[in-house]
Amino acid sequence: MARTAKACLAAVAALALMLLAPGAALAATSAASVPAADASPSPTGYGCIDGEDEYGAPLPCELKIQVLNPICDNNVPKLQYQVEAVGSPNTTVKITWINPDGDDVVQSGLPLSGTVLWPGAVQGANGEAIDWPGWRLENGVWVEGDEFDWVRPSVKVLFQVNPEMSVSVAYPPSSPACLTSPPDTQVLVDNPLPPGEIAATGSNVAPLLIGGAALVVVGAGAVLLVNRQRRTQA
């Protein structure tokens, strides 16, 4: 009788083990398939990293402008800059020259430090300036006023990494060593001066010389005539 009872208990235990084993295996598999939580902060797209420091304060998010220097290079106005993005993983900057009355000028995908052309400045093949912002060439003469008048004498510039920061920068002045505006005497070969101005600066020299020579001849003749009359009277 005792043996029969033990046999029955053993059978019940084996059956229970068979029923519970698949559930336990499934639970173990499910637990293994769930990834561990990532405790590190992640970027919030184009901007700063979310997170807190060891004291629970938000991580810093700011843009520092370390260099902002308007310069003249080979008679070309340029802006030299260097920025530092605190709290951002981004490594490029977008520079926007803000036009208060029209379309902005955007220079994007730039390194965090470098030098850019002033809007409206144009370089030739040799790097020399051939056009300046705020000036236009008419009949070979430089005249103030063009579509880039708004970048002089100062202009607002927005730097975005992101974070972002806007500052006002002054147009670099001309000096004897470097011109940021066209010289008064500059004339391009394919834009000669009007005929009247050319005559005034050199082509009328020959007529003046001829007239002067004629006056000399007339004067000499008058002197000879006077001398002859004196001799006759004597």
TrEMBL record:
The chain crosses the membrane at residues 205-226. Keywords: Membrane, Signal, Transmembrane, Transmembrane helix. Residues 1-27 form the signal peptide. This is Peptidase.
